[in-house]
Amino acid sequence: MQPIHSSLTGKLGTYGYFRDSLAPDGFTLANWDYRKGYLDRQLDDKAMVFLRLPVDVKEGELDNPEALLELGTPFVLKHVYQTGVEENIGYSATPAAAPLMNQFQEPINKDAPLDRSWVEKAEAIVRDLEQRFDELK
Predict the structure, then answer these.
(1) Which range is least confidently modeled, 9-18, 51-60, 87-96, 108-117?
(2) 2-131 maps to which CATH number?
(3) CB 105: neighbour CB atoms within 10 A?
(4) Quick one: DSSP state of residue 80?
(5) Which SS3 state, helix, strand or coil, does residue 26 take?
(6) Terminal Cα-to-Cα distance of the chain (whole angstroms)
(7) pLDDT digit string, tens, across residues 53-62
(8) Which of 15, 51, 81, 122 lies at a CB distance of 3.0 to 4.6 Å from 67, suitable for a disulfide?
């Protein structure tokens, strides 16, 4: 995990505003409960490298568009998952269906080392977001 120093940290806005503003850039709500969560953007084509914007709920509940959120410090991380199909897992799946069945497996490394190129890509995205969200408190 690599934190990215950013003026986004501490910015306030509604969930609806952040959701609608970030969805066109590929951000989705992930790993959330009603008090906190993450707005994630996949950076690679294997779903292992993500730019993550933590959010804390200040008022309301996270699934409500009017909930007031505060952004935390952005970071980029890499999850490494087991490749291939696990043996003896209690079900039989065709090669096409196996990825769907194994999508909930735990990463073998939740905080794998990052290539500098991923950090630079994430930093560039964050700088763009800083300009777009400059008017927020």
Answers:
(1) 87-96
(2) 3.30.310
(3) 11
(4) B
(5) coil
(6) 27
(7) 999 999 999 9
(8) 15
Who's near 107: CB < 8 A, 6+ residues apart?
79, 80, 81
Burial environment of residue 51 by CB neighbours within 10 A (0 to 12, 13 to 18, 19 or more): buried
Token reading at 29: 């709500």
Nearest to 133 by CA among 7, 16, 14: 7
Among 48, 9, 43, smallest CA distance to 121 is for 43
Cα 37–Cα 21–Cα 79 angle in degrees, nearest 5: 40
Give me 15's structure tokens.
């969930």
Take residue 67 and report the two structure tokens written for it: 């909930």
Model pLDDT for residues 10-57, shown as the tens digit of each residue: 999 999 999 999 999 999 999 888 899 999 999 988 888 999 999 999
Cβ atoms within 10 Å of 91's Cβ, excluding its own: 8
Whole-structure pTM value? 0.77
Residues paired with residue 118 on neighbouring β-strands, in sequence order:
none
Domain ranges of the chain: 2-131
